[in-house]
Each structure stands twice: as structure tokens, then as C-alpha cells.
From TrEMBL:
Designated name of the protein: Aldehyde dehydrogenase domain-containing protein
A Pfam family reported for this protein in Swiss-Prot or TrEMBL: Aldedh
BP GO terms, sorted: gamma-aminobutyric acid catabolic process
UniProt KW Oxidoreductase keyword: yes
Active site, UniProt feature: 273
Length: 375
């Protein structure tokens, strides 16, 4: 049996339709593209313009139940697949994913997450690298020999897959973080049910497309976007489902606590990467030029001066209108307002504003220039 090609999954070696972004995104369950069980959909909007891009199928609890059952069934054969076969699928998928740079990846990520061209390339190339690196792990899943007290006997420990893994990946680096949620579980012979962000289904679906086109067997990877309204219900259902034995989540600490609590009720292991700040410490013996390059993409006076000079050259604006934009809009108007609130709060608390105009611009009020504070 071969996977059914959905509206967003034309033959991988064809040029594909030019109006791909106008097509609805369907669920991908057991190798088939299908609408939600009750026909529900939700809108995916362009964060820069707030205009509708497309309708996306909204998975229900019934859809998740079916996907988990199919993943459990697929596990019975995938868990017996040899390392060479798994490695070859991942290596092929890496090449297919990179080919999307010349097809629709740029348009998809630009429309969904306001990604400038350089960010599209970083996501695709780094994800292809992740798939190639993970492919090499297929033969590195080793056990351990353990000494025993009984003469003539040897004990050994063998690593085994666990079954169905439920993964939740965010929108901010949609291709890379999707691959990170699914690649290691799959190469270790588990199967995956993936919930993408409601903001970036098509961007995250790029990884699913590549693996399916590379020959990943039916049911091993299931892709179920759902609306914000349904997300709490389907997430709790999936986390607590008896055939889901591991959970991986990247997102906010608030949601991570909720998911961790649900998993704890069922005594399930979780991998949680939660939100937080990313401070940078620059010491007086550091290479200042290299530190500036790293931070842009306070400290001593020399560093501050070079940082301000570098930030002054950063081009911010609507990537849909201007070429060479380094920083496009934030993801939502609320995100932009939150950044400005943080800047104002810092200034009110005594910080000195060295760069930035404390303004929000853009057609959807999402563009915020880089700000530098001292204090």
C-alpha cells in the first residue's frame, strides 16, 4: 500500500501547483491525507498582514484516537526494521527536504511565520543536517554487558523501543524543532503522533512530506494539526492515552507544567524543553567582534560600542516588501506589544535605552526594531 497524495502532497518530483498556499492542509494519518472526522477546520493567517492564508483541518479526539491506534499497529513492524533500512530513509529524507528550498519552502515559511530568506535556509539546512546525524545513530543504539556473580554466565542489557511517542513542536523554528521532536524516536524504532503548532502547519509538514517521500512506512508518523479551541482537549487525551508511552514537548513553562502533570498521573516519561531567558556573559578577555556577531543574531564599553554600531546596520521591516530584511515582524501583534511592555518596564525601573524607538510598525503592527537596554 502506498500513501495517498493529498492537496499539499503532490508527487515529490513534480514542480507542484503554483497556488499551494491556497490549498487546505489535511491531516496525515496512516499514510493518508484526510479531513478531520467531523469536517472542522481553522484559519491560518499571515502574521505580517493578518490576512487569511488557508484553511487547515482541525483534528478531533476521534482523529487522535485513530492515529494512536494506527501508530501502535505500525510499531509492530517498524520496531523490527533493521538499522540500514532506517538509516537510508533518513538520508534520503534529508536530500528531499533540501530540495524544497527550490520549490515551496520559502513561500510557506514566509507566509506562515514571516521568515526572511536566510531563516528559511537556516531551518532547512540545519534540519537536513539533523536528519543525517540521526541517521548515523541507527547503528549506535547499543546495550551493555554486566558482570555477574554466577560463574559461566554473562548478563547483558539491550535497549528496546517503547512504542508510540506523542510529540508537540512549536512554530518559532518550525522545521528544525519538528524534526527534533520526531527524528530520534523514529530512528530508535518508535512511532510518532505529532501535533504541530496551529500557527505553522504547512511549515512543519515539510518534514513529514520529506520522510513520507523517502519511504517511511505507513502509520509510523502521523500529523494532526488542530485548532486552538480543541488543543487542550486533544492534548490531554493523547498524553493520557494508554498506548502513548512517551511525550515530548517544546513550548512555554506554563503549558509544560500542565503536560507534565498529566503525564505524571499516568507515570509516563516526558522530555520538556520550556521557555526561558537566554543571557550572554561577555568577559574582558573575549573576542569582542565574535561576541557581537553572536549576540546580534550589556557588557564592557568596547563591546557596547561595537554592539550599537552593529545593531544600527540591522535592517528591520516587512520582508514581503523589502529585500534583505534581517528581522521581520514578530509572530502576533500581542507578541510585539509584550516586547514593548518589557522595554517600557525596564526603562521605568531605571534602565537606560541605548537603541530602539519603543514603537510598533507594520501592516499588522508586528514589527519592532531591535532595542538595547543598559542598567
Amino acid at each position: 500500500m502506498t500513501p495517498n497524495a493529498g492537496p499539499t502532497e503532490a508527487h515529490e518530483h513534480s514542480s507542484g501547483p503554483s497556488n499551494l498556499m491556497d490549498q487546505a492542509q489535511l491531516l496525515y494519518v496512516d499514510g493518508r491525507y484526510q479531513p478531520s472526522s467531523d469536517g472542522a477546520t481553522f484559519l491560518v493567517n499571515n502574521p505580517m498582514t493578518s490576512h487569511r492564508i488557508y484553511n487547515c483541518a482541525s483534528a478531533s479526539v476521534d482523529d487522535y484516537s485513530l492515529a494512536i491506534e494506527n501508530a501502535h499497529e505500525a510499531y509492530q513492524s517498524w520496531s523490527k526494521t533493521g538499522p540500514t533500512a532506517r538509516r537510508m530513509i533518513f538520508l534520503k529524507a534529508a536530500g528531499i527536504l533540501e530540495s524544497y528550498l527550490h520549490r515551496d519552502a520559502g513561500e510557506i515559511m514566509s507566509q506562515e511565520i514571516s521568515a526572511p530568506d536566510y531563516w528559511v535556509k537556516i531551518n532547512i539546512h540545519s534540519t537536513a543536517g539533523t536528519l543525517r546525524e540521526v541517521a548515523g545513530l541507527a547503528t549506535q543504539i547499543r546495550g551493555e554487558v554486566i558482570p555477574t556473580d554466577r560463574p559461566g554466565t554473562t548478563a547483558f542489557m539491550e535497549r528496546q523501543p517503547v512504542g508510540v511517542v506523542f510529540g508537540i513542536a512549536p512554530w518559532n523554528a518550525p522545521v528544525n524543532l519538528t524534526a527534533r521532536a520526531i527524528a530520534c524516536p523514529l530512528i530508535c524504532r518508535n512511532t510518532v503522533v505529532l501535533k504541530p503548532s496551529e500557527y505553522s502547519p504547512k511549515s512543519q509538514h515539510l518534514v513529514v512530506r520529506a520522510l513520507a517521500a523517502a519511504g517511511l512506512p505507513l502509520g509510523c508518523l502521523n500529523f494532526l494539526p488542530t485548532s486552538p479551541k480543541r488543543t487542550p482537549q486533544v492534548t490531554e487525551f493523547a498524553v493520557k492515552h494508554p498506548k502513548v508511552l512517551r511525550v515530548t514537548f517544546t513550548g512555554s513553562d506554563r503549558v509544560g507544567r500542565i503536560i507534565g502533570g498529566w503525564a505524571a498521573e499516568c507515570v509516563k516519561q516526558c522530555i520538556l524543553e520550556l521557555g526561558g531567558n537566554a543571557p550572554v556573559l561577555v568577559f574582558d578577555d573575549a573576542n569582542i567582534d565574535e561576541a557581537v556577531e553572536a549576540v546580534v543574531f550589556g557588557a564592557c564599553e568596547k563591546f557596547k560600542a561595537k554592539l550599537l554600531a552593529k545593531v544600527a546596520t540591522v535592517k528591520t521591516g516587512n520582508h514581503l516588501e523589502y529585500f534583505g530584511v534581517s528581522f521581520s515582524g514578530l509572530f502576533t501583534p500581542a507578541s510585539a506589544r509584550r516586547v514593548i511592555e518589557l522595554v517600557k518596564s525596564a526603562v521605568h525601573g531605571g534602565a537606560k535605552l541605548l537603541a530602539g524607538d519603543v514603537e510598533i510598525t507594520g501592516p499588522n503592527k508586528t514589527i519592532v526594531r531591535p532595542h538595547i537596554l543598559e542598567g
